[in-house]
Amino acid sequence: MTFPAFLTLPGSTLAALTLTGFAAAGLPSCGAADLTHAAGEAGSWNQAEKSSNPGSDVRPARGIWIDREELAELPASGPAWRQVLEVASASTEKPNLSDQEDPANTRALAKALVFVRTGKKRYRDEVVAACEAAMGTEKGGNTLALGRNLGGFVLAADLVGLPPELDGRFKEWLRGVVLEKLDGRTIRSTHEDRPNNWGTHAGASRIAAALYLGDREELDRAAAVFRGWLGDRDAYAGFKYRALDWQADPKKPVGINAAGSRLEGHSVDGVLPDDQRRGGGFSWPPPKENYVYEALQGALVQAMLLERAGFDPWSWSDRALLRAYRWLHDEADYPATGDDVWQIHVVNRVYGTDFPAAETARAGKNVGFTAWTHASPAKPR
Question: Which residues does UniProt assign to the signal peptide (predicted)?
């Protein structure tokens, strides 16, 4: 796979550019030796991509979630921007990774976005403090809470750049936290055996951590698991499914039903069976089951992170993600509302669709603010 472009520069060039950029902002930076080492790792990663994925037309990008140059071009005015500012003003003093409803993760992300766009140092200071305070608070929780919460802090840290000493501790903690047993599961095991919202949120945080750490093996494994969840059982098929009522092929269950799938004469092409089942057994008209959108929150973040790392998840399994949203709109008559609307801005941008999406969109369980960051048109896929 292709590593983000800022890690494909020669080591000395990378170090000079990064150190210069941080110095200009008056901020602490990583050491040149660390940056040179990272660039070396990226180089070998890119060689692996050239041999394993020849002819890839995926354009690598800088930044795990979004880069500073992209943010600099976004408007610092309008309803969507004002919403980011409003969330960025909220407290992140006591983050709690064991609380699945804790908003500190998306607040930290908002602060990071505002810092990069405005240069106001207090927002960065609050992100740094929040990342430090978050470490260890996963204790006593479960992997749903950690899966929802972890990624936002990783993305925020990537945007602002943590001070070197804290960054070292943050990375050490990240390496361990994805393997930490919480209520009998880890982030990694949850991603690999839960084919529903638990697994998709875990996968998003797992991928974010792997990218932050530059962990090639972990990223490749996570990408294969996600590809399997989208429907490619040759890539991965180790999930543990529950009721199979909504599976188009119960003998070969998947995370998203295959293109053209039907049950009792009705289209289930794009259904997420292991979350749709929460509304009961197969019935028509289909239940408007919000767990499906919850699962798609995690799935969409996985796809967005993987795309920026050089994969093309939007096309996998006959554009499985697009088919999922089409089924919700066309068959279930169930457009996104509340903290799910942020997803639609991304889907419309990626696929060139025109699903209804409010001018502002609340933050989701894991990320948000896409009405500002991802509302601009992009090339349809």
Answer: 1-25
Low-confidence ranges of the chain (pLDDT < 70): 1-62, 376, 378-381
Which residue in 219, 202, 201 sits closest to 210, CA to CA?
219
SS3 for 265-323, per residue? CEECCCCCHHHHHHHCCCCCCCCCCHHHHHHHHHHHHHHHHHHHCCCCHHHHHHHHHHH
Residue-range domain boundaries for the chain: 1-60, 61-241+287-373
Distance of alpha carbon 171 from alpha carbon 167, whole angstroms:
6
pLDDT in tens, 242-284: 999 999 999 999 999 999 999 999 999 999 999 999 999 999 9
The token pair at 152 is 């936002």
Percent of the chain with pLDDT over 90: 82
The CA radius of gyration of the chain, in Å to the nearest whole number, is 20
Q: Which two tokens stand for residue 216?
A: 């090639």
The CA distance from 365 to 92, in Å, is 15
| pLDDT score at 377 | 72
The CATH homologous superfamily for domain 61-241+287-373 is Chondroitin AC/alginate lyase (1.50.10.100)
Q: Which string of DSSP letters, residue by residue, matches 140-181? A: T--HHHHHHHHHHHHHHHHHH---HHHHHHHHHHHHHHTT--
My answer on whether omega of the bond before 285 falls inside 30° of 0, hence cis, is: yes
pLDDT in tens, 102-131: 999 999 999 999 999 999 999 999 999 999
> What is the model's pTM?
0.85
> Mean pLDDT over all residues of the chain?
87
Residue 78 per-residue DSSP state: S
Q: Which of 257, 279, 281, 253 is nearest to 269 (CA)?
A: 257
Angle between helices 32-52 and 11-24 (to 10 degrees): 130
In sequence order, what are the beta bridge partners of 263? 266
Q: 201 near 210, Cβ under 8 Å?
A: no
